[in-house]
Design brief:
Layout: E1 15-18, E2 35-36, E3 40-41, E4 49-50, E5 54-56, H1 65-73, E6 77-80, H2 86-98, E7 103-104, E8 109-110, H3 116-126, E9 131-134, E10 143-147, H4 163-166, E11 168-169, E12 176-177, H5 182-191, E13 196-200, E14 206-211, H6 212-219, E15 235-238, H7 243-253, E16 257-260, H8 268-280, E17 284-290, H9 293-301, E18 306-309, H10 319-323, H11 329-347, E19 349-350, E20 353-356, H12 362-370, E21 375-378, H13 380-383, E22 392-395, E23 398-404, E24 432-436, H14 441-458, H15 464-470, E25 472-475, H16 478-484, H17 493-497
Parallel strand pairs: 5-6, 5-21, 6-15, 8-9, 12-13, 15-16, 16-17, 17-18, 18-20, 20-21
Antiparallel strand pairs: 1-25, 2-4, 3-19, 7-14, 9-10, 10-11, 13-14, 22-23, 23-24
The structure holds ribavirin monophosphate.
């Protein structure tokens, strides 16, 4: 007969944390959210950690190079989606690795033959008041000069005046040479009271612009996730079909960590992929998704550096409806965490766990951490921001962004749902939808982190490890859920429109 679990499978909404004693030296600023992402031996440090326990989902509508840069700048990691050609995915990884914080490729460029009218038109289009003047009007052409709003007077100058007549010419420019560090560039900016410093190579071709305001922004991100070369750390998703071709290309592009992205990861395909990657390359690799101890141990024994938990809980996921497989995210996490602890006791090896999918409220993140997750992966959460790759649209009076599942027809990612049969998506396991637009990543992330740290202080925890060890968690009854929201009052309209 079939095996029956005695407990129903539960979601985050069914649990709450009970406060522990908060000591006076346990305030939000004392909380450190650093967390491991790759396995390590007891008493040693992991090779790879995150500064905040956030990762963005391996999805076309979530994780491209723009998202990866924005999230790493705040201390988390993106896994660039694998449902694209090997070359395109590798190019995205390379873009993140080559991105130099504070060094921007000039976005507004003209030639000396253009006119003041062209400058004004471009300024209107891009919003940038600094225009680089190069021989061919490209961002990397030979630098002839710079135009800023201080170089012309619209009221006096004629619109057809040539740029060559009013630009600050190269001979009068202060510039930096390629290879300069951001802090050296900043010193020059201060010394000469500049707003913008062009960086040129040996042949005076323009490479980057460094703006005073970007340096300040960089200083404002002390938790940025950087490698030894001061490049942002980035992950990438792979599948169990074309890994022999994809993995070397991603490594070549500089990827820091891989994850095998699949709806159901408890398969021999994943084991084979893990073994191949581990025996041929020196790269960290996670695997999943699984929802029980057997799946966890199988992937760990096949060589996984971390394991991803969750089937069917994603906001855009209809796997449970379509196939009837899956498990409430909280129950899955609780069982996998127990298996991880037992494995740690027996072997002295700590395997980080990622809770993937189903995070709706910020407190769900704290609950996931308390239940044993070392970090979470989210799709819907990140899709709402400016930095996600999808279009921002206006529907009625509200702005929304698109999000579609990797199991939807739109994503054409049949490899994620591959069960070893013929190639192609047999039926959809995801939907194509919208999420309310929420603004910039940093602003929202700061708010979420503020809430997590605050809850952690309520629980008397200064670190995620503390929280995992000492959290006290209670189930809530269906009726007490009502008590948790605003109740028995008449809401004012202003509160109804708030988050
Ligand atoms: P959420 O954060 O709830 O949006 O969930 C994101 C997760 O959903 C992804 O990391 C992935 O595991 C899962 N997913 C992505 N596409 C699909 C699908 O089409 N079914 N599911």
């Amino acid at each position: 007969v079939a095996f029956y679990y005695s407990e129903p499978s539960r979601t985050f909404n069914e649990f709450l944390l009970i406060p522990n004693l908060t000591e006076k030296n346990c305030t939000p600023k004392d909380v450190d959210l650093k967390t491991p992402i790759s396995k390590f031996k007891k008493g040693e440090q992991p090779d790879l950690s995150l500064n905040i326990p956030f990762s963005s989902a391996v999805m076309q509508s979530v994780s491209d190079s723009t998202m990866a840069i924005a999230l790493a700048r705040c201390g988390g990691i993106s896994f660039i989606y694998g449902s694209q050609s090997v070359a395109d995915q590798a190019a995205m990884v390379r873009k993140v690795k080559e991105y130099k914080a504070g060094f921007v490729v000039s976005r507004s460029n003209l030639t000396p033959q253009h006119t003041l009218k062209d400058v004004l038109d471009l300024r209107k289009k891009t919003g940038h008041s600094t225009v680089a003047i190069t021989d061919n009007g490209t961002p990397n052409g030979k630098l002839f000069g710079i135009v800023t709003s201080r170089d012309y007077r619209v009221s006096r100058d004629s619109l057809d005046k040539k740029i060559s007549e009013f630009m600050t010419p190269f001979s009068s420019l202060v510039y930096g040479k390629s290879g300069i560090t951001l802090s050296e560039a900043n010193d020059i900016i201060w010394e000469h009271k500049l707003n913008c410093l062009p960086i040129v190579d040996g042949a005076t071709n323009l490479q980057y612009l460094v703006f005073r305001k970007d340096y300040d922004a960089h200083k404002g991100n002390p938790s940025a996730l950087l490698d030894d070369n001061k490049s942002y750390i980035v992950g990438a998703g792979i599948n169990t079909r074309d890994y022999k071709e994809r993995v070397p290309a991603l490594i070549n592009a500089g990827v820091d960590v891989l994850v095998i992205d699949a709806s159901d990861g408890y398969t021999e395909w994943q084991s084979e992929t893990l073994k191949y990657v581990k025996s041929n390359f020196d790269v960290k690799i996670g695997a999943g998704n699984i929802v029980d101890r057997e799946g966890f141990l199988y992937l760990v024994e096949s060589g996984a550096d971390f394991v991803k938990v969750g089937i069917g809980g994603g906001s855009i996921c209809i796997t449970r409806e379509q196939k009837g497989i899956g498990r409430g995210q909280a129950s899955a996490l609780i069982e996998v965490n127990e298996a991880r602890e037992k494995y740690f006791q027996e072997t002295g090896i700590y395997i980080p766990i990622c809770s993937d999918g189903g995070i709706v409220h910020d407190y769900h993140i704290t609950l996931a951490l308390a239940m044993g997750a070392d970090f979470v992966m989210m799709g819907r959460y990140f899709a709402r921001f400016d930095e996600s790759p999808t279009k921002k649209l206006k529907i009625g009076n509200n702005f929304v962004k698109e999000i579609w599942g990797e199991g939807s027809n739109r994503a054409r990612n049949w490899q994620r749902y591959d069960t070893g049969g013929k190639e192609g998506l047999v039926f959809e396991e995801g939907v194509d939808s919208y999420v309310p637009y929420a603004g910039s990543l940093k602003e929202n992330l700061d708010k979420s982190i503020g809430k997590i740290k605050s809850t952690m202080t309520n629980c008397g925890a200064r670190s995620i490890e503390d929280l995992q060890k000492n959290a006290r968690i209670t189930l809530v009854s269906a009726t007490s859920l009502v008590e948790g929201g605003a109740h028995d009052v008449i809401m004012k309209e202003s509160s109804l429109s708030g988050e």
